[in-house]
Design goal:
With 243 residues, the protein is mainly alpha-helical. It has two domains: 2-135, no CATH class; 139-242. 84% of the residues lie in helices and 0% in strands. The longest helix is centred in the N-terminal third of the chain and has 27 residues, at 54-80.
């Protein structure tokens, strides 16, 4: 745990810095880039937005590289962790996050001139608002958005919308219960528990598929399975890119 906690503190810089300078595109539009390529893209964006000169570009590039190295340490430490942080560790982590963010801000302020720094802080504020509004939705909001998309893609009638809405709500409730159970646990699941969880998820998926098949007509179900396959393939590609 100590190793994980220290690594988390080191990792904060890259998270805050990357989020500050580059907005995340939506899931299907997210580019599949290596860490080095993402750093280069961040740098290009900053160069364009803030009109960085060559010296500033080198300084910002170094800052990004350092934080990328810290991010790698964090990922390795997270793999080695067997337990979750205590409340005291979380509180210390929260304070350290604030300190790291302030340190990052100070470094950027030292690199940029007054006008550039003002614009950079404005970009951070704009992204923060976008990130909160666009990326964090309640389960109910996600279900409603999903239902609206299915209604459009599959041309659902009123009765089908009601049934699919209830199905999505039931699934969200199960997922919330699973997440709560994992949060309440102080240790990571064993290999046997992971296998059992995977098996249960497969059974739940089959049950969900069966219920959708009973709600949709033949053409709608065929189109829905095609949409599911496309989504699954994109998720696989995204996971491969992160490896």
């Amino acid at each position: 745990m100590k190793k994980l906690f220290i690594a988390v503190l080191l990792f904060v810089g890259i998270v805050s810095f990357a989020q500050d300078v580059n907005q995340k595109p939506a899931g299907d539009q997210r580019e599949k880039l290596t860490l080095q390529q993402r750093n280069e893209k961040h740098l290009q964006k900053l160069t364009s937005e803030l009109n960085l000169d060559k010296k500033q570009q080198e300084q910002v590039k170094q800052l990004l590289t350092e934080r990328s190295a810290k991010a790698e340490k964090f990922r390795e430490a997270r793999k080695d962790s067997k337990t979750k942080p205590t409340d005291a560790e979380r509180e210390a982590f929260k304070k350290q996050m604030k300190a790291e963010k302030e340190a990052n801000d100070a470094k950027m302020k030292a690199i940029l001139n007054a006008d550039q720094y003002t614009k950079w802080t404005a970009l951070k504020k704009e992204h923060k608002g976008h990130y909160r509004k666009g990326d964090f939705k309640t389960p109910q909001e996600r279900d409603q958005a999903h239902l609206q998309k299915l209604t459009t893609d599959l041309n659902l009638n009123a009765d089908q919308q009601k049934q699919v809405g209830e199905l999505l709500s039931d699934r969200s409730t199960k997922m919330a219960m699973l997440k709560k159970s994992r949060r309440d646990s102080d240790v990571k699941p064993t290999d046997a528990e992971r296998k059992a969880m995977k098996k249960q998820m497969e059974e739940d998926h089959k049950a969900f598929d069966s219920k959708m098949k009973s709600i949709l007509n033949a053409d709608q179900y065929k189109k829905w399975t095609a949409i599911q396959k496309e989504r699954k393939d994109k998720m696989k590609d995204h996971r491969k890119d992160k490896m």
